[in-house]
Please model this.
Amino acid sequence: MRGIMLTATSFALTAAVLGNAYVQKKQFYPSVVYITKSHPSLAVLYLQAFVLVILMGKLFKKVFFGQLRAAEMEHLIERSWYAVTETCLAFTVFRDDFGPRFVAMFTLLLFVKCFHWLAEDRVDYMERSPVISWVFHMRVITLLVVLASFDLLFINYAYHSTLTKGASVQLVFGFEYAILLTVLINVFFKYVLHTIDLQSENPWENKAVYMLYTDLIMGFIKVFLYTAFVAIMIKIHTFPLFATRPMYLAMRSFKKAVHDVIMSRRAIRNMNTLYPDATAEDLATTDSICIICREDMVAGEPGAGGGGTCKKLPCNHIFHSSCLRSWFQRQQTCPTCRMDVLRLSVAAASQRLRQQGQQQQGGVGQQGQAGPGLGQQGNGQVPPVPGQGMPPFPPNFQFWLPQFQGGVPFPQPPVPPPPSSAAQPGASTATSPTTTGAASQGTSPGTSPGTSTATPTSWGTSLPNFPPPPNMGAPGMGGMLPNMFPSMMPPFMMPFGMSPPMPPPNFSGLSDEELHAMEGMERQHVQARIECLKNIQSLLDAAVIQMQQYSTLISGLGMPTVPVTPASTHTTSATSTVPTPTVQTGESPAPPSSPINPETLTSTAAQPSESSNDLSDLEGAVGFTSPAKETKDDAAEPAAESPEEQERNEVRRRRLQRLSSSETSTS
Amino acid sequence: MAGSALKRLMAEYKQLTVNPPEGIIAGPVNEENFFEWEALITGPEGTCFEGGVFQTELKFPTDYPLNPPKMRFKTEMFHPNIYADGRVCISILHAPGDDPMGYESSAERWSPVQSVEKILLSVISMLAEPNDESGANVDASKMWRDDREKFYRIAGELVRKSLSL
Ligand SMILES: [Zn+2]
Ligand SMILES: [Zn+2]
Model:
C-alpha cells in the first residue's frame, strides 16, 4: 500500500516539476537546462528514477518468477543487506568516481544480482517440488538467457572501458558481472541436470556426482577470479575490503566442494572394491526395502543402466548402491546398525581368507559370518544378537560391553604375590580395574560404540584403543588365582604368559597373509580372555555369596564379639584354600559394584559356598574385625601385634598408595 | 523422475496419512513444496503437557534422509530441551558428525533409519520426560529439577494457550 502511495506521489511530483519547467520556459531545451540547474527538481527526478527501477524490478519478478516463496524472499532480503553494505564500502574506495552515473550503475548491479540469486533459488526448488510445469521451464530458460546477455554486455563494456581509459571503477563492475556469470553457468548446469533427472524414468544415479563436479569446477573459477581481482586491486588501488566476505565464502565453498569430491571418490572406490553385490537370495531373506530411500530393492540387473544394483555390507544389511554411496560420502557406518563398515570389511576380507585356510575352527568361523557373535556367545549370558533390520542395539547390550572390555586389560602375566597378603586387597582391587576400565571404555569407542569390538573379526582394530592395563589390579588378582583356586586354573590361561602382540592401528598396510596370521593369534587371545573373565566372575560370585552369608550371620549375632586370636584364625583359613575370599569380602564390602548377573551368581557360587558353610562361624569373626581395626589409626595399634599382622598392614598401606597414585595417573 | 529426497518425503507423508500415529498430525504446509512440513503434536497423557496441541514446523534439507530436518515449535513452549526460539534439542535431530552438547552417543543420532514419525514420537516422549542435562533452556531445566510444582503450573498455562489458538 505504501509502495503504491510512494509511486503515485513520485509520478505526481515529476509531472509537477516537468509541467512547471515547461510553463516557465515554453520550450524544450531551456526547460531541460532549468531542471538540471534546480536542485529540488533534480531530487524529484532522481526519486522518480528510483521508483521506476523498482517498478521495473517488480515487473521482471512478475514475469520470471510469479509469486516469490517465503524462503526466497527471506533469502533475498538477507543477501541484499550484505550487498548494500559491501556497495557502501566500495563507494569509499572509489570516491573520485562518485556521481549519479556511478550510483545508477550500482543500483542496476544490485538488481541484476538479486535476479541471479532468485534464479539460483528457483532452480534449487526444482528438487523440492513434485510439480514442475512447463511455465516453470519457460521462465527459467528465458531468465537465464536474459541474465546471461546482461552479464556479457556489462563485462564487454567494462573490458573495453578499461582498455581505452585505463583502470577505473569499471574494473569492479566487470569483475562483479564475471562472478555473476559463473553463478549463472552453475545454475544452468544444475537446471540441465535436474531436467534430465525429471525426464528420465529411472532414478539417475550419477546426478549427485555430476553436481559435485559442477560445484568443484565453478568453485575453482570463482576462487581464481576473486584472487585475480584482489591482486589487481592491490596493485592499482588498495586492498578491496568490500570483496573480502564474498571471497571468503567462495573459498569456503570451494574447499567444501573439494572435500565432497574426495569423499565421494573414496566412497565409490570402497563400494566397488569392498562390498559384494546383493544376490536375489540375500534380498529374499530381508524385507527388501532400502532403508535410505524406502523403496523396493531388486537384485542387480547389469542392464539397468549401471543402476539398480544393491550392495551388501559386512553386517548383512542391504541398500541401493546409489543410496549407500551418498551416505558413505558423509559417514563410513552402516545406516541401520551403525557398524563401522570400513574397518569391518577389511577384517572380513581377511577372515574369508582365513576360513579357506583353517577349517578346524569352522564353528567360530560360522559365528563370524553370522555377524556379531563370538564375544556374546562365548560369554553365554548376553542379550540376543541384534537381528536383521532391527534398529540399534538394545540398551543392555551397551551395558554389557564395557564390562567385557573392562576385563580385557587383565591379561598381564600373573605376578607372584607377597605371600601373606595375597588374600586381602584382592577383591577390592580386582573389582576396580573392571569398573575403571568400563568407565574409560564406555565412552571411547567413538562412532560405533561397541559394535566394532563385539564382532570377532574386528578385535584387532579395537585393541589399540584399550587403556594400558591397570597394574594395580592384575597382581592382586593374579595372586589370588593360583593361591586359592588352583583347581579352577584353566589350561587356557597359559597364553597369557606371553603378552599379546599389539597390532598396528590400521590394517590397510598389511598383506592378507599378515592379517590372517595375526588374526589367528588374536582369536586365541580373545577366547582365553573370555575364559579368564568367566573365572574372575565365578570368583566374584563366590565372594558375593559369602559376603551375603556374613551379613546374615552378623545380623543374627547382634553385637560382634572381638576374637581372641585373629592371626591364628587367619592362617587356618588361608590353608583351607576355598573359603579365603571371605576375608577379602569382609574387608571390602563393595562387591555388588562388580557387574555380575544375579542369575549366574547363584549357580556359579554354589560350589565354593557349600564348602565354606562349616567354617563360616570363625570367618565371620575374622571378616568383621579387620575393618574395625582398619578404621583405627595405625600408630595407635598395640605393639603386641603379631609380626604377621604388621606385615599385612604394611602391604595393605602400600597397595592403597599405589592404587591412589595409579588412579590419578590414569585419570 | 523426482529426486530421492522428494520421493522419500512423499512416501513418508503417505504413510503418515494412511496410518497416522496417535497424537500426531503431520504433512507439508503446501503440497508444491514437500520440504517444509507442519506438525501438530498433542501433549502426552499423564504429563503436565496433557491436552495441549502444539504446532511445530519441520524443514528438510535437500539431502534428506542423509541429514536430519530442523524442527521448531511455533507454539510457545517452556521445556528443558526446547530453546527459547522453539528449536528442539534432541539427539535424534543431530547429524552423527556434530555433537553440540558433547554428551550423546552416536547411536542415538540421526541416521536414514529414522523418519518423521520417529522424530515426532521422540519429541512426544521428550515432552513426557525432559532431559535436564541438556541445557537448551537452562531456566526450565533448573525449574524442572528444583521446583516441579512451578514447572507444572507454567506448562498448564502453555497448554491452555496452545488450545486457544
Ligand atoms: Zn535406496
Ligand atoms: Zn548394518
Summary: Residues 353-583+593-666 of chain A form one domain.
